[in-house]
Design a protein that fits this description.
By secondary structure, this protein is an alpha/beta fold. A 6-stranded mixed β-sheet has the order 1-2-3-5-7-10, sandwiched between helices. Strands 4-6-8-9 form a 4-stranded mixed β-sheet. Helix 1 runs parallel beside helix 3 and helix 8 packs antiparallel against helix 9.
Length: 261
């Protein structure tokens, strides 16, 4: 399928989704949001795909945020429509059964940061910058910025949302926003290592774990624990789970079939 704002490629068991509006630093518009959601859904439905990698065609940014040309003339309920459109795409990333790795090299701002934090892993280069500069234009942070207190604490979220100051990669790692950062020329290798590790895990177990973690952060503790217990029952029915247990008892490496749920 030909797409206007992203590039997609299947690389073994990995589905690479590349943001491809470098002329505007991958600023997000309606077409891009819809294409991202469609591509992620397509990857999750492919039985041979176990990981999605989201990266950028720009050498300056992962994404600089929302496309101002897309939203500058909004009035009334149009603002709510755009907010919900952003949330639909980000929620797709957060809830689709397949793990998603985000590779960040450069600016990761505003809605671009919300896109990144909706992925399961954020790996950055040492030249990356993170922030919510929209407050400097009179626009509060909304939508998946609501995840920031879970990632960086309420004080960190207030700092980013109130001041618009950028965090460098070192601070982002220290405050728990990203998994790790590496020199720019090592980013591809670092990402490949993580993607490779994930691609060897049993997909059904990963899907179950992702669903459980989503419940951990969106429901109360007792409901999340109860959901975890009940959901684990379904994973116990898979052949890969049986193989994992058998290989442990037999002291050998598992030979997973790669079955999805």
């Amino acid at each position: 399928m030909e797409r206007k704002t992203i590039r997609c490629a299947k690389e073994g068991r990995v589905y690479r989704l590349t943001l491809n509006r470098p002329e505007v630093l991958n600023a997000l518009n309606g077409v891009m949001l819809r294409e991202i959601a469609e591509a992620v859904t397509e990857a999750a439905e492919d039985p041979d795909t176990t990981v999605v990698l989201v990266d950028s065609a720009s050498d300056r940014a992962f994404s600089a945020g929302i496309d101002v040309a897309y939203v500058k003339d909004l009035v009334g309920f149009e603002v709510r429509h755009i907010g919900r459109e952003l949330h639909r795409t980000f929620l797709t990333l957060r809830t689709t059964e397949i793990p998603i790795v985000c590779a960040i090299d450069g600016l990761c701002l505003g809605a671009g940061l919300e896109l990144a934090i909706s992925c399961d892993f954020m790996i950055a280069s040492d030249r990356s910058k993170f922030g919510l500069p929209n407050i400097d234009r009179g626009i509060p942070a909304i939508v998946e910025a609501a995840l920031l207190p879970l990632a960086v604490g309420i004080q960190g979220a207030r700092e980013m949302a109130y001041t618009g100051k950028f965090w460098d990669a070192e601070k982002a790692e220290r405050r728990g926003l990203i998994q790790t950062f590496v020199p720019a020329d090592e980013l591809a290798d670092e990402v490949d290592d993580l993607v490779g590790r994930l691609s060897q895990k049993p997909p059904a177990a990963l899907a179950t774990q992702k669903e459980i973690i989503h419940k951990w952060i969106t429901t109360d503790v007792e409901a999340a624990i109860d959901f975890s217990i009940n959901t684990a029952v379904l994973n116990w029915l898979t052949e890969d789970q049986k193989e994992g247990m058998a290989s442990f008892i037999e002291k050998r490496e598992p030979d997973f079939m790669g079955e999805k749920r």
